[in-house]
Write a structure and sequence with these properties.
four-stranded mixed β-sheet, alpha/beta
Amino acid sequence: MIVVAGEALIDLVPERPGDRLGPLSPRRGGGPYNTAVALGRLGAEVAFCSRVSTDGFGEALLDGLHAAGVDTSLVQRGPEPTTLAVATVGADGGAGYGFYASGTADRLFELPPELPSGVRALALGTCSLVLEPGASAYEALLRRESGRGVFTLLDPNVRPGLVPDAEAYRARFRSWLPYVSLLKLSEEDAAWLGGGVREWLAAGPEAVVMTRGAAGMTVWTRSGEEVSVPGERVEVVDTIGAGDTVNAALLQVVAGRGPLSASAWGAALGYAAHAAALTCGKRGAQPPYASALRSPTPPLP
């Protein structure tokens, strides 16, 4: 089983991109939530670990997990409201966000008991590693499960508007790296965080995957391999959830397999790029089902 830990929230997505006062459609979201749903749709055995509100939005979030076949036994519940993220979508489909997260349920996440022995991977990232007091609980979960030998993926998916102290967050990010197996981040994240791939690899991760939007993505490994794949051409509606779909596709392929060859990494990245392109073709975070992909599972060399 793969466990995805982090926030679940509601994205309010413009029905007409560029219309600042136009109607907003509520969509299930949050980077970790989207990753869990994507894994379920791709056919992986997955559980979501978070704190979700008992309000109407929270119930809708759980409905989405159940529909994707995601195990919710690790979900904590609380009466606090659901976090809201108001999206702005540019002409190119790129999305920005404003957050309403004061006193919301996912911020009050508490460290759960040790995860089941059958867990082969843990994924974390985005707002959940910024907003206290939950951020410290998620950080403790990362350190504890990494210490047990669980494969870990970190996607910082930085939201600068939520970070109260940029330098403190950058230092905290570096402190996580010894506990990370696979670091996945975007070019924008990398520029904001500072440092570089070689520095990050030296700190702990076995591999770093960097996404470049339509230009594709690249992986660097501790063994010295560097592999790139191009992005897939698609009519972009918006990019919401594309990076989260990459997380899911990579976890499905890489977690628990040991070191991959350059050709295997190429296949894994190509599979992730295809899945992400399909996500970009729909409004909001709508990761594809396995049946929509060219191959339901990536054929590794």
